[in-house]
Amino acid sequence: MRWMSRTAVNALLAVSALYTLLPLTWLLFASTKSLSDLYATPGFAFGEFNLFANVEAVAREGGGVFFRWYLNSLLYAGVGAAVSSLITVACGYAFDKYQWLGKEKLFGAVLLGVLVPTTATAVPLYLLASKIGLVNTFWSVFVPTLVHPFGVYLARVLSAGYVPREVLEAARSDGAGEIRTFASVAMPMLLPAYVTIFLFQFTAIWNNFFLPLVMLNDQNLYPLSLGLFAWEKQGHAFPEFHSLVITGSLLSVVPLLVVFLLLQRFWKAGMTAGSVK
Length: 277
Hints:
Structural class: mainly alpha
Number of strands: 0
Strand content: under 5%
């Protein structure tokens, strides 16, 4: 029975891995093909190798606007995730280590935010941004990404697992204030938690589509997701845009892979913190 259960688990993992990797594999094959080979050859077969020409076409289109979108996405996702994760970790630490009136009720309200889909908040956010004149600006997309309710919950759990109260009391006894205690004592212990939340938030912001769609009209402010969508719409009239979208999609995966590979050891530590408390 044990070998049967092990086989079943391994088979399930293999199917899950195949389901995850199949679209990426197709994208890799398709991005190396010319436009004619894209339609004339099977999906999982190489045609004439045309990857570098495709990348060059992406770079030329619109005067290099693709790389402007790339930079925008890096700013939205990189800076946004870094700042959001710091705010989130500080909030989770405060919920875990401090006591104040109505704390659990406020934390319950934060958890309610986890249940609200981000698409449901796009229109209210647009109306608020319109009132203060932020529509079609960098800030209209950047500021909402700083709020991460699930990250606050996760930070509270990881703070309980990583930061002993005795260490904080020792720092306070040595004369450290609350800000210095958090920055110098708690934050180094919470680095795996910070990186874990950063990875979640970076991925979510990088793939964010609906909020930029609602907020932005200026193509120079588009993230990659919205820019590639704009190209895809033109593909109905100009088929060459299909090849541009496919190659651009492949290039858009690179930052996600790099970030996960560089930070995976911190992410693994953060995800297993609760089990070794």
